[in-house]
TrEMBL record:
Residues 205-315 form the PH domain. One of its GO terms (biological process) is mitotic cytokinesis. Signal peptide: none annotated. Residues 165-223 are annotated as: Disordered. One of its GO terms (molecular function) is GTPase inhibitor activity. This is RTKN protein. GO terms for cellular component: actomyosin contractile ring. Residues 203-212 have a biased composition (Low complexity). SUPFAM superfamilies: PH domain-like (SSF50729).
């Protein structure tokens, strides 16, 4: 992902340079406003991407200095999750004379948000605000696809005054209001909210591949003898399908085996020339229940064991976010501002 991050940094630098050249040539206030917004967005992306690249470089240097006899799992990294932010609403407070009596000067401004998770930054459409509104509403959804379990969401609110009811050429400035658990608290010029929460999507597929149901009479035997299964680790379950096509088509799995942070998984060698077994053990109703699935080879059994270890680690990191898979639709592309 580092080359992709480097390309994102270079792209933000190019767009920022273009916006800087375009700004003096803007003949309409609306154009100047959108161009300045682009500058603000690109500045934030350059800082975020540059900081992330430096952090990864420092992590590599620390890893190079680390002793080679580090314990197992020392380099394990939790999987990424998806965070979706939608329907943001900010309540407004007006003076009685302005809102109820409709007196005084009509104040108008253009407002937008920058939202950041890690090195990923998105903006919202610009919203025009005056005293006829009781809330600032940012409709639609913002999607972050590379969030870690300890992610932090940062929200910055920008405002540009529009004197005389028109879009005059004042540039966006950060509102001198701090967004925290309650709005309206006096703060600095940098409006920032650090919010923590769960992702929209728990850990994805940690392992996929073929396993076989054991022959009748073997521990945990279910279904027809030797029936091949295409298995997928997803969220709190090991989903076992009759084929890869059934899994891709979204059909009901032939067998579902619960996988929680308390699940125990081990690979057992097969006796008398038999293939190895992947045993998945859960405690149900005070008793231990083991599903023994036959791997195609010792290497395949080891691959599944490593996939289970990573998946159990992910479950422990994401915690309750893994209990239910949430479907998140890709937001439609935003229309460019009117010329």
């Amino acid at each position: 992902q580092e080359p992709e991050l480097q390309r994102a940094l270079e792209r933000a630098l190019r767009v920022r340079e273009g916006a800087r050249r375009l700004l003096p040539a803007c003949s309409r206030p609306e154009q100047a406003l959108e161009t300045t917004k682009t500058l603000v967005l690109c500045d934030a992306r350059v800082v975020a991407a540059g900081g992330e690249l430096q952090r990864r470089q420092e992590a590599r240097l620390r890893g190079a200095r680390r002793p080679s006899d580090a314990g197992p799992g020392a380099e394990r990294v939790p999987c990424r999750g998806t965070v979706c932010i939608s329907d943001l609403r900010i309540p407004l407070m007006w003076k009685d004379t302005e809102y109820f009596r409709n007196k005084g000067e009509l104040h108008r401004c253009a407002v937008f948000l920058l939202l950041q998770v890690g090195a990923e930054i998105h903006d919202t459409p610009t919203v025009l605000v005056d005293r006829t509104l009781t809330d600032i509403c940012f409709e639609g959804a913002v999607l972050f696809s590379e969030a870690g379990p300890d992610f932090e969401l940062k929200v910055e609110l920008y405002s540009a005054g529009l004197p005389g009811g028109g879009a005059q050429g004042s540039t966006p400035k950060k509102l001198a209001t701090r967004l925290s658990t309650s709005l309206g608290r006096s703060g600095g010029r940098r409006a920032r909210a650090a919010l923590e929460g769960g992702p929209g999507s728990p850990p994805g597929t940690a392992g996929t591949g073929a396993l076989l149901l054991p022959p009748p009479g073997a521990p945990g035997a279910e279904g027809p003898s030797g029936a091949p299964l295409f298995c997928v680790l997803r969220g709190p379950d090991l989903l076992c399908y009759g084929s890869a096509h059934e899994a891709e088509a979204g059909q009901e799995p032939t067998l579902t085996i619960a996988v929680t942070k308390d699940t125990r998984v081990r690979a057992e060698p097969g006796g008398c020339g038999q293939p190895p077994v992947v045993a998945v053990t859960n405690r149900l109703g005070g008793e231990e229940v083991t599903h023994a699935l036959v791997a195609e080879s010792a290497a395949e059994a080891q691959r599944w064991l490593e996939a289970f270890e990573q998946h159990l680690y992910d479950l422990g990191q994401w915690k309750q976010c893994c209990e239910e898979l949430m479907r998140i639709e890709e937001p439609p592309p935003r229309r460019p501002p009117a010329p």
